[in-house]
């Protein structure tokens, strides 16, 4: 099994993009945990450039990584006692950080959300709030909108990834031949120039046209059916095409076409949202724009993966360092953004200065905490790191 350094770069950059996106969420008019006093629609077109696909890309890459991890587990089982050890170690790497994040990392986000948005404010201090948070207090409400505690906030991705991994493991255990047949047919269908763009884009367009008006995006797992239709599909697709070279070659060949369709659909979506910010759009146009959203989702992913495979700089000490650091950075970043944003408010800095400062300071603090955590064996599992000290930056990369 040869490590896919292009996908390591994609994963690293996609998680880094989340930092930029969540800093942007502080400055736009969309609902978020805290809002800048100078929030405006100015950044919203640029936020829409990645809104349709950024999480979907991570789920697809996670599906590919799962295929390689499972292959590694099977190879180890063939060498040792024949027992495939996959779901247990994978659960440990995902559920321990999720639990720790919900209990320790995420509560400051909810605290400042209550301070900012609860009618009349909140004045009892963080420790009092934390106690109520752990007790699942459901009295923090604005009208009918009540904050659900405890919460996973941005760590919903980890919860979903674990659930999808369990579902995939069940398919691997109980329907391996059917899974292999479907994967083979899917790889054949996506290996053609038209197939790599047409069929997945049609799936996501149909999903958005039929489901987005019925199921809200909640990230609450049990009622989030539109997101499951898109994210579970991408996770399983990544698993199915992990070793299908024809599919990856098709992405490389169609990367420019996909890039053009991605940018064209983005322009259409931005124009649609700005033109119909107040008036009700015609139903036919609404459905057409939902289809454009689905096209945007998939074409962006094809373009990114195609260009990454074509232009990947390959392995390097920097990549090996970032590949280890990016998950702890992801766990920490949103809480640090909110703490910094609230802390900078008294300075009344202009957004053009404050925004870049938030980005730089967030990355700096996240990596500083990572450097501390990676040196403490007991802290490593809490941030999704293996329970040993990280190898030096120049050490050989693991064959995952």
UniProtKB/TrEMBL annotation:
Family matches, as InterPro entries: Acyl_transf_3_dom, Glucan_succinyl_AcylTrfase
Membrane-spanning intervals of the chain: 12-33, 53-71, 92-112, 155-174, 186-205, 225-244, 256-275, 287-308, 329-349, 355-373
Top-rank lineage group of the source organism: Bacteria
Keywords tagged on the record: Acyltransferase, Membrane, Transferase, Transmembrane, Transmembrane helix
Residue span(s) of domain Acyltransferase: 5-370
A GO MF term: acyltransferase activity
Keyword Transferase annotated: yes
Keyword RNA-binding: no
Pfam family, one: Acyl_transf_3
Protein name: Acyltransferase family protein
């Amino acid at each position: 099994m040869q490590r896919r350094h292009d996908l390591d770069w994609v994963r690293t950059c996609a998680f880094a993009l989340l930092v930029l996106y969540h800093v942007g969420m502080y400055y736009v008019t969309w609902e978020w945990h805290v809002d800048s006093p100078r929030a405006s629609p100015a950044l919203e077109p640029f936020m829409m450039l990645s809104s349709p696909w950024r999480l979907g890309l991570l789920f697809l890459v996670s599906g590919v990584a799962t295929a390689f991890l499972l292959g590694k587990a099977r190879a180890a089982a063939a060498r040792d006692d024949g027992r495939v050890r996959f779901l247990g170690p994978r659960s440990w790497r995902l559920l321990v950080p999720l639990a720790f994040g919900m209990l320790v990392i995420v509560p400051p986000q909810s605290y400042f959300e209550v301070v900012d948005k609860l009618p009349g404010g909140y004045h009892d201090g963080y420790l009092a709030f934390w106690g109520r948070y752990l007790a699942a207090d459901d009295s923090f409400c604005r009208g009918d909108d009540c904050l659900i505690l405890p919460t996973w906030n941005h760590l919903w991705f980890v919860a979903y990834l674990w659930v999808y991994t369990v579902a995939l493991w069940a398919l691997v255990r109980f329907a391996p031949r059917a899974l292999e047949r479907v994967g083979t047919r899917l790889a054949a269908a996506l290996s053609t120039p038209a197939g790599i763009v047409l069929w997945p884009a049609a799936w996501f367009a149909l999903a958005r046209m039929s489901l987005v008006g019925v199921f809200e995006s909640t990230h609450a797992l049990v009622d989030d059916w539109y997101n499951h239709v898109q994210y579970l599909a991408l996770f399983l697709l990544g698993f199915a095409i992990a070793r299908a070279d024809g599919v990856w070659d098709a992405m490389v060949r169609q990367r420019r076409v996909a890039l053009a369709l991605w940018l064209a659909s983005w322009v259409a979506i931005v124009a649609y949202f700005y033109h119909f910010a107040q008036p009700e759009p015609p139903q036919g146009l609404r459905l057409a724009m939902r289809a454009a959203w689905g096209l945007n989702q998939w074409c962006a992913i094809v373009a990114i993966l195609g260009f990454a495979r074509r232009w990947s700089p390959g392995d390097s000490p920097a990549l090996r360092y970032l590949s280890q650091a990016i998950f702890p950075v992801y766990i920490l970043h949103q809480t640090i953004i909110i703490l910094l944003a609230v802390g900078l408010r008294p300075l009344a800095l202009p957004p053009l200065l404050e925004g870049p400062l938030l980005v730089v300071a967030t990355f700096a603090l996240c990596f500083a905490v990572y450097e501390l955590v990676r040196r403490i064996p007991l802290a490593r599992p809490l941030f999704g790191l293996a329970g040993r000290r990280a190898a030096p930056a120049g050490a050989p990369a693991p064959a995952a």
